[in-house]
Amino acid sequence: MKIYTKTGDKGTTSLFGGTRVPKHHIRIESYGTIDELNSHIGLVKDQKVGDQTREILNRVQDRLFTLGAILATDPEKAILKSGQERLNIPTITEADIKLLENEMDSMNEKLPEMTHFVLPGGHPSVSICHIARCVCRRAERLSTALYEISPFNELVLQYLNRLSDYLFVLARKLSKDLHANEVKWIPEKGS
């Protein structure tokens, strides 16, 4: 299989179902940002995060491929003439969201209470996790904009929202595990 097809040379790309849209279309921005997020999750996973976290992040990457496929499907061509769904893959479920919530609860039990906002940083692994969190928030913003135009499974939005929360808690856990300084944001007093 050749990697290059030349079909996008004029600035368009195909959705699942064959519909061609501009490469700057909100749908492409949405699933392209999911792809970017998946790459950042891979970088987080390559840090010293522990086996359990690595397993969770593997699961997250799998779910992100599913999200991308959902967003890359032309809603008008999502159902085949046979009545079957074009995407023949497991979808996002409440269990996927619950897994992230359970992981956050487990990590939070071992973390000091948050009394202030936390400045990203303190260790490269923590910073990488915060970057992934920010990309996740951007993916969520783009996906919610797409959802207003062309609704899809709401669990996609819930999953992205929960994933950004998970990445924040994971960054705090990494700070603790790596003995990094977690810097609280304390606004300067105005004059």
Automatic annotation (TrEMBL):
Pfam families: Cob_adeno_trans. NCBIfam families: PduO_Nterm. InterPro entries: CblAdoTrfase-like, CblAdoTrfase-like_sf, PduO-typ. Homotrimer. Belongs to the Cob(I)alamin adenosyltransferase family. GO terms for biological process: cobalamin biosynthetic process. Pathway: Cofactor biosynthesis; adenosylcobalamin biosynthesis; adenosylcobalamin from cob(II)yrinate a,c-diamide: step 2/7. PANTHER family: CORRINOID ADENOSYLTRANSFERASE, CORRINOID ADENOSYLTRANSFERASE MMAB. GO terms for molecular function: ATP binding; corrinoid adenosyltransferase activity. This is Corrinoid adenosyltransferase. Signal peptide: none annotated. Keywords: ATP-binding, Cobalamin biosynthesis, Nucleotide-binding, Transferase. It catalyses: 2 cob(II)yrinate a,c diamide + reduced [electron-transfer flavoprotein] + 2 ATP = 2 adenosylcob(III)yrinate a,c-diamide + 2 triphosphate + oxidized [electron-transfer flavoprotein] + 3 H(+); 2 cob(II)alamin + reduced [electron-transfer flavoprotein] + 2 ATP = 2 adenosylcob(III)alamin + 2 triphosphate + oxidized [electron-transfer flavoprotein] + 3 H(+). Its EC number is 2.5.1.17. Residues 3-173 form the Cobalamin adenosyltransferase-like domain.
